[in-house]
Design brief:
This protein has 3 domains: 313 residues, ABC transporter type 1, transmembrane domain (ABC transporter transmembrane region fold), CATH 1.20.1560; 171 residues, P-loop containing nucleotide triphosphate hydrolases (Rossmann fold, 3-Layer(aba) Sandwich), CATH 3.40.50; 63 residues, no CATH class. It is 63% helix and 10% strand. The protein is built from 21 helices and 10 strands.
Length: 584
């Protein structure tokens, strides 16, 4: 319950709508409960005495009560809908805002599909609980208490039947809720798995078609879909058992009341109108019991969803700014001092071990290494996407953990290994680097990244639509737009993580020449091609998370066997190692 109470704090301005809705439910219930009393008088006085004027008067009063109940019911629906959907919007917004503050290590704890489910399906469950549960939550206790009170007032002997039925209904409710409660959590996890398969299948649809794996993906989807169906069936088959059980109890109570009430009428101890009014209260009381049971089921499911949402909101953000942060980065120098790093605290091996490296402000440094040598891991420590496990990373002479996080990341421009563009125009994507950039600045960055070559041919130029995720441009064009976006930041440190792998060597040469003209900017280039780094001030060779060698191109070519092997295989076709067969 504490998770649900915590989420209710996000009601904010909609709290008044919630209370107004609850008040309207109370008023509506009072009007409905007055009707059986008027009906009893209409029968026992008006019909008994054949007083048409009295009958019409009571009928008008009943009509007015019914009309007022209808009006208050409609008003309740309006206020409750506003409260439910407004609350849901605020909870989703809070989750999304919290996720934006997550470090990479926080994001590693949640699958993307699960986060999507928690922001959509789980929030919808909460909204439905308010829309479908607020009315019976406030209406049922009022109807129950007032119905019981009025029924005892009308005939205490018949009302004793409630005292027999109530424990039976309570036991049924307890058994159903205790069985269904844990199943709702499993149901939401099944939705997570379904969303995960859908997300993977749609994201990789081109690969699926290229490898003709459509049937395999269909089978995989069918598997999780069937699992969700089976979980849903088991859950709701139990959840709906309360309805027939309650109806059986209710109709049993009605039969008993008619049996004993009929006998009392024959004995002269009860009038027909009183029995009719009493039966109305019986139905209202029993319906209130049934509504309470539905509220418990809604509450049980919403508690499971509230717990999942609270996990997102309560996640401790690993990387935050210190209490008294350094507000600006003085220059682009980078120092790795005894740096070791592993992604999980319980990991057996370090991804990086004992890294000592000095990069001066304004230098251009190339990083080479095989797959899995932790090249990307190394540069991710600079903008503090992860924190070191041991040692320190310094930028501008200060530990990155001492900086204001926003200031540090503003000073570092990074072109990720996986190029990401967003739905929208070229201009909107480029302005991620600088929201206030003019057209002249945008074109200058595009020229430096050689993106102007294809933008001038696209209808609309800077205002050309890229489609979802940049589907309207090729991989090389994506890379060039991402480079232009990073250049617009005007950072002190520029990191290129294998960001020219999809462009031809001539275009890469032009980009490299444009980058060389940037002064006062430290450039770190991760590459697979020797040509991308051979003209840098310093080349770093990484092997198994350790620095194997550092030096210029000439120094490494003369002394380092790994660099010699890379250079020979790329620049000379591998004839020194493969002989004639390697050239065929």
């Amino acid at each position: 319950m504490k998770d649900l109470r915590r989420l209710l704090s996000y009601l904010g301005p909609y709290r008044r709508d919630m209370f107004t809705g609850a008040l309207l439910v109370f008023i509506e219930t009072v009007f409905e409960l007055v009707i059986p009393v008027l009906m009893a008088d209409l029968i026992d006085v008006g019909v008994e005495n054949r007083d048409l004027h009295y009958i019409v008067g009571k009928g008008i009063q009943m009509g007015i009560c019914a009309l007022l109940a209808l009006i208050t019911g409609l008003l309740y629906a309006r206020f409750t809908a506003r409260a439910a959907y407004g609350w849901g919007a605020r909870v989703r917004e809070a989750q999304y805002e919290k996720v934006q503050s997550y470090a990479f290590s926080n994001l590693d704890r949640f699958e993307t599909a699960s986060l999507v489910t928690r922001m959509t399906t789980d929030v919808t469950v909460l909204q439905n609980a308010v829309n479908g549960g607020l009315r019976p939550l406030f209406r049922s206790p009022v109807m129950l208490l007032m119905g019981l009170g009025l029924s005892f007032w009308m005939n205490a002997e018949l009302a004793l039947i409630f005292l027999v039925c109530a424990p039976i209904l309570a036991i049924i409710l307890f058994l159903v809720v205790s069985k269904v409660a844990p199943m709702y959590g499993r149901l939401q996890k099944s939705v997570d798995r379904l969303n995960n398969v859908v997300q993977e299948g749609l994201t990789a649809i081109r690969a699926v078609k290229a490898f003709v794996r459509g049937e395999y993906e269909e089978d995989k989807f069918q598997s999780v879909n069937q699992a969700l169906m089976a979980t849903s069936q088991r859950t709701f088959q139990l959840a709906v058992l309360n309805l027939p059980a309650f109806q059986f109890t209710m109709y049993t109570a009605i039969v008993l009341i008619l049996w004993f009430g009929g006998g009392m009428i024959l004995d002269g101890g009860l009038q027909v109108g009183e029995l009719t009014g009493f039966l109305s209260y019986v139905l209202q009381v029993m319906n209130s019991f049934m509504m309470i049971s539905n509220v418990f089921l809604l509450l049980t499911r919403s508690l499971a969803s509230a717990h999942r949402i609270a996990e997102v909101l309560d996640e401790d953000v690993v990387l935050t700014s210190p209490d008294d942060p350094i507000p600006t980065v003085p220059d682009g120098s980078v120092d790795f001092e005894g740096v070791s790093f592993k992604y999980h605290a319980d990991a057996k091996e370090y991804a990086l071990s004992g890294v000592d490296l000095r990069i001066g402000a304004g230098q251009t440094v190339g990083i080479l290494g095989g797959t899995g040598s932790a090249k990307t891991t190394l540069v991710q420590l600079i903008p503090r996407l992860y924190d070191v496990t041991e040692g320190a990373v310094k930028v501008g002479g200060h530990d990155v953990r001492d900086y204001d996080l926003t200031a540090l990341r503003d000073a570092v421009g990074i072109v990720l290994q996986k190029n990401v563009l967003f739905s929208g125009t070229v201009r909107e994507n480029l302005q991620w680097g600088n929201p206030d950039a003019t057209d002249e600045e945008l074109w200058a960055a595009c020229r430096a990244a050689c993106a102007d070559e294809f933008l001038t041919r696209m209808p609309g130029g800077l205002d050309a639509d890229l489609g979802q995720g940049g589907v309207n441009v090729s991989g090389g064009q994506k890379q060039r737009l991402c480079i232009a976006r990073a250049l617009l930041k005007r950072p002190k440190i520029l990191i290129f993580d294998d960001s020219t792998s999809a462009v031809d060597t001539a275009t890469e040469g032009k980009i490299r020449a444009a980058l060389a003209k940037l002064t006062g900017v430290t450039k770190i280039i991760i590459a697979q091609r020797v040509t991308s780094v051979m003209h840098t001030d310093l080349i770093v060779i990484l092997e198994d998370g350790r620095i194997h060698a550092t030096g210029t191109h000439d120094q490494l070519l003369a002394s380092d066997p790994i660099y010699q092997e890379i250079y020979t295989s790329q620049m000379k076709g591998g004839e020194d190692h493969g002989g004639p067969s390697a050239q065929r």
